[in-house]
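Task: complex structure prediction.
Instruction: return C-alpha cells for all chains below.
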Amino acid sequence: MTLDAVLDQVDGDLESAVARLLELLRIPSISTDPAYKEDCDAAADWLVDDLQSIGFDVSKRPTPGHPMVVAHAEGEGPHVMFYGHYDVQPVDPLSLWSNPPFEPRLEDTDNGPVIRGRGSSDDKGQLMTFVEACRAWKVVHGTLPAKISLFFEGEEESGSPSLVPFMQENADELKADIALICDTGLFGDSTPAIVTRLRGLLGEELTITGPSKDLHSGMYGGIARNPIRVLAKIIASLHDASGRIMVPDFYDGVEELPADIAQQWNDLGFDNSEFLGEVGLGVPAGEDGRTGLEMIWSRPTCEVNGISGGYQGDGFKTVLPSQASAKISFRLVPGQDPLKLRESFRAFVQAQLPEDCTVEFKGHGAGSASEMSTDHPAFEQARAALSDEWPNPATFVGCGGSIPIAGHFKDILGMDAMLIGFGKDDDQIHSPNEKYDLSSFHKGIRSWVRVLDAMSK
Amino acid sequence: MTLDAVLDQVDGDLESAVARLLELLRIPSISTDPAYKEDCDAAADWLVDDLQSIGFDVSKRPTPGHPMVVAHAEGEGPHVMFYGHYDVQPVDPLSLWSNPPFEPRLEDTDNGPVIRGRGSSDDKGQLMTFVEACRAWKVVHGTLPAKISLFFEGEEESGSPSLVPFMQENADELKADIALICDTGLFGDSTPAIVTRLRGLLGEELTITGPSKDLHSGMYGGIARNPIRVLAKIIASLHDASGRIMVPDFYDGVEELPADIAQQWNDLGFDNSEFLGEVGLGVPAGEDGRTGLEMIWSRPTCEVNGISGGYQGDGFKTVLPSQASAKISFRLVPGQDPLKLRESFRAFVQAQLPEDCTVEFKGHGAGSASEMSTDHPAFEQARAALSDEWPNPATFVGCGGSIPIAGHFKDILGMDAMLIGFGKDDDQIHSPNEKYDLSSFHKGIRSWVRVLDAMSK
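Output:
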C-alpha cells in the first residue's frame, strides 16, 4: 500500500537523511550577528541545491537582509505551502557547549540517540523533516501527493525584517490552500501537537545615559547619578508583587481563555514542578492565580533578556558608568497591539527618568499573537494522521513562542496555518548544547508523509 | 638661598622630568588584570633603576601579588616616609580614548599643557612629583633635607591584598616620624589641600543563578524565574526614596560632621551645579538634606560599578539567562566596620532571594575610613609651605576616595599620615583620557621641595 511504501523508504533512507542534516548544521547561519552574513547565504545555497536534487523548481531570492528560498513542485491535490527558517540563534556562552555548536554529531544519550548542534531542533532539523518526507514520496512515486511550495527564511531569529515586505511583493506566488509550519514541539515526549494559539513578541533595547563619561566612584560616589541604579529601578518597577506587568494599558484587549480551551489544557495534566525541575527551578514565577500553561501559552510577559553596564571584567573597578543598557522583550497574546505597547513602554520608562538622565530606545521585532481557526479540514486530517504515527492521540495546544509567520499567512495571504512540530522541551533551543532527538527527526519525517497522504485524499 | 636654588633646579630640569614620567607611563601596569602582571613588574623595575640613579638604597620586594618598591636615603632632620602606587586602572572603553592610553604625550589644551595617558594623575604622575623633588634637592646639595624612605605598591587599584601583610612583616623598616602620601588633589584649580578625612571602601561581587541553563523566553517566559529581574529588584531596594541606604545596621557608628569642620567645608563655597555640570549632570543624587561636600566627603555610599547578564551582543536574543551578576561598592566613613557591613549586605541580599535562586558572593577590598589627627607639627609646616607655592592658602579637606594606606600607617606603624596631592577634578582618573596638568606636575614638585624644607627646619 502506497503509504507504507513511502514510510519504508523513510526508514531505509534515515542514515543519509541524518548526514544531509549534519551538512546543513555545519553552516553557522546566525542571522542576528552581521559577522555571519555569508554563512546565512551559504545555508540558503545549500537548501537550493538540495531541493533541486529532489526536483523542485527553486530559487534564492535576495532581500535587504538574508535571502529567502522559495521552491515549487506540481502535484495532484491541494496546494500546500510549507514554511521553515534556516537561520539559527547565537551560541554564547561557547564555554558551556559540550561539543562545538557547528560541529554537529549524532550522540547516544540515556534517552536515546540525539543530533547535537546549534539549529538541530530550531529550525534546521524540523524543516528537513518535511523536505525528507517530500524526497521519500518522490522516490517511491516519482511525483508528490500535492502541489507543494516551500518557503524558507533566514531572519526568523532576528525579527524577520524582510518577511512581510517579501510576502506582500510575492503574494500571488506564495498563496496556497493552507500553510504548514514546522517550528514547534510535541506535548511532553510522545503526544503530537497542533498549535492553534501563538504568542507575539515585542523587543526593545534601552540605553540610559547619566554622566557624560565614566566617573571615579571615590570622587563622585554619592553625588553623581548612576545609570545602572536608574535602570535597575525601572526594571524592578515593570512587575508588581503579584507578577502583574505595570506598563499602562498593557492588558488592554487581553481576554480570558475560553472555557473549552482551558478545559482541554487542564486535561493535559501539565506538571509545573516537573517542567521547572528540568531546568533547576521549582516555583512558577508568573502572575499569581494562573496555571503553568496559562503562564507560557495564554498570558503576556515582560522579560529582561540582557543587561549591561560599567566594569564587567576580572577584578574590580570603582567606576560610576556613563551608561547602562538592557534588552527587554514582551510575549504578547491575542488582543494586544505591539506598536501601541512599544509607545506605552517607552512612556513608562521616560516617566521614571531622573531629570539629568537621557534614554535611547532601539526597537526590535514587533509581531502580534495569533489564534488559528481550526475549521479548515486539514486540521482534523492532520490530527488523525499524527495520531496514527505516535503512541498518543494528537491534540490542539498553545505555544509560548512567537512565530509571526502564522499571523502573516492569515493577514497577508488569507491562508490558515497549521503548526506541527516534533521538538521536545529539553531540546535546549536558544541555549548551549541544543539537540534534536533522532526519534523526533525520524518520526517527524514519517508524520509529514502521513499528513500529506491524508490531505491528498 | 638654598630653597630657591632647589626650586630653580626644578624649573630648569622640568623637561627631563616630564620625559622620565612619560617613560613610566608607557608601562601598562594594570594591577587588577592578570594579563598585565609582567608590566606591573616592569614598572617596579623602572622605579628601582630611577631611585638608584638618585642615590637611594632601593630594593624590589616580592609579594604574592605585584612587588613593592622600598627605598631609603640618609639625611639630616626627621625621618619621612613617602607612599605612592605605580599600578593603574583598566582602560576600557578603549574606543573613548583620544590617544592610546599607554602612548602618553604632552598635549596643549585650552587650559594649558597636560600630560595625557593612563596613570598620568593616578598615581604615577603624583608619585614622581616627590621623586623629582628629591632628585633636585640632591643635585643642588648632594644630600637630602631629611632621612627619606619611599614605599611604592603595585596593587592599590586592585584592593591592595599584599599591603597589610607586607607592612606588618616589615614594620621596623617602614616606621618613620611621619608619612606623606601623594594620591589626592587640589581643591578647585589652585587651592592646595591637605586631606584629613578619607572614606573607606568595601567591594562586593554577586552572581545570582536561577535556571540551570539559559532558557528560551518563548518556551519558559512567564513561568521561569529570571535572575536579571531578581538582581534588579535587589539593587533597586538598596536605597530608599530619600537616598538612604537600606542595608540593616549600615549607619551604625556613623556620626554627624563636627560643627567646625562643617563650617570650614561650607566656607569653601563648593558649587554642586558647577561640580556636576562638568560631567553632564545637574542634580545631586545623594541623601536628601545633605550638602554636596557631605555627599562626597563624609557620607557613606552604595554604588553599582558594573552589571552583567544575558545577551549583550549585537541584535536581540530572546533568552532567559541562567545568571546575572553585579559589582557593588560601598564608600565608608569613620565608625563603619567594613567586615561587619559585608556580612550585613550579604544577609540583606539572601533575604530577598526567591527560593529557587542561589547567590554567590565574591569579596573585594575592604578598607576602613580614616581621620587624621592634625596635632603633628608637620601639618602646620606643610600648610604654610604649600601656601607659599600656590595662589591660595592651603586648607584641610576631606576626600571621597579610599586610600586605606593612610589608616594602615596609623594602625600598623603608629604614624600620622599627611595626604597632599596636586590632581584636579577634571583629570579623568579611572576614565578614558586621564591627564595630569603640567602645572600640577611642576608646582607639585616645587611644593614637595618647600614642604621638605619646612619640615627640616
